[in-house]
Write a structure and sequence with these properties.
The protein is mainly alpha-helical. The chain folds into 2 domains: 11-173, Orthogonal Bundle (Helix Hairpins), CATH 1.10.287.1490; 178-232, no CATH class. The protein has helices at residues 3-24, 27-80, 89-171, 175-185, 209-217; strands at residues 192-196, 199-200, 230-232. Strands 2-1-3 form a 3-stranded mixed sheet. Strand 1 and strand 2 (199-200) form a beta hairpin. The longest helix has 83 residues, at 89-171. The structure holds zinc ion. Zinc ion binds at residues 193, 200, 202-203, 205, 224, 226-227, 229.
Length: 235
């Protein structure tokens, strides 16, 4: 295994990786994500209020129906009072009490309807406010997105150049070496660590006497007992 060549390749590979990570951690990108989340959140709140208003409308319609039914009953009762002069006073009292109960019930319906109406009105005002705030953030988002898109296009080019450079270096490597490197990189990056003072500089574990002996004796590359990185001793 040509560790020196692999180590050289790793510098390019890591640089490209680092830049890719920087890109995905960009402050603008994070801010855009935050704004997009906020807008989504406001849309959900708006929809929730919309559903609440719908429910209030339905309840209000039921109240109205009930009030109409009660009014009709009241009209019938009023009509029945036309023969009042022939009734006993007890009957009159009963009928008047019945009428009063109806009036109370009608009043309660109206009160509920008024309550629902003002609740729905305030919910609608809430919706207007949500829309206004979401629109403000959306316009900030749009402006920032424009800037970000320009930067992103440039960064993408730069990343491609870095990656191309690394790929060019990779072409000079032994295929099996590169394969091994990629395998280790899947669970451990960077995949090669220097051996300094008998320590793996990837995980800072002091290597066992056995492993150190192996490194000295073998021409093959040895991996760290602890982290699995390829160990590169420059000397
Ligand atoms: Zn290690």
């Amino acid at each position: 295994m040509n560790l020196a060549a692999l180590w050289n390749y790793m510098q390019y590979d890591i640089e490209a990786d680092k830049f890719r990570i920087e890109m995905s951690n960009s402050e603008k990108r994070k801010k855009l994500q935050k704004q997009a989340d906020y807008i989504k959140e406001q849309q959900a709140r708006f929809a929730k209020i919309e559903a609440d208003i719908q429910q209030m409308d339905e309840r209000s319609a039921k109240c109205k129906e009930e009030a109409e039914r009660l009014c009709k009953l009241f009209d019938e009762m009023s009509a029945a009072l036309s023969g009042i002069e022939n009734m006993e006073s007890e009957e009159i009292t009963q009928k008047l009490q019945g009428a009063q109960r109806l009036l109370n019930a009608i009043e309660a319906c109206e009160k509920e309807m008024n309550g629902l109406k003002s609740e729905a009105d305030s919910a609608e005002r809430g919706q207007v406010e949500i829309k206004r705030r979401a629109a403000k953030v959306k316009s900030e988002y749009d402006a920032l997105k424009k800037e970000y898109d320009v930067e992103f296009a440039q960064d993408k080019q730069k990343l491609k150049a870095l990656r191309d450079e690394a790929d060019k270096q990779a072409e000079t490597l032994d295929k099996a070496d590169l394969e091994r490197y990629k395998q280790i990189k899947q669970h451990c990056t960077p995949p090669i660590a220097k051996l300094v003072n008998n320590q793996c500089t990837g995980c800072f574990m002091t290597l066992s006497v056995g492993t150190l002996r192996e490194i000295k004796a073998s021409s093959e590359a040895i991996t760290c007992d602890n982290c699995g990185r390829l160990l590169y001793s420059a000397d």
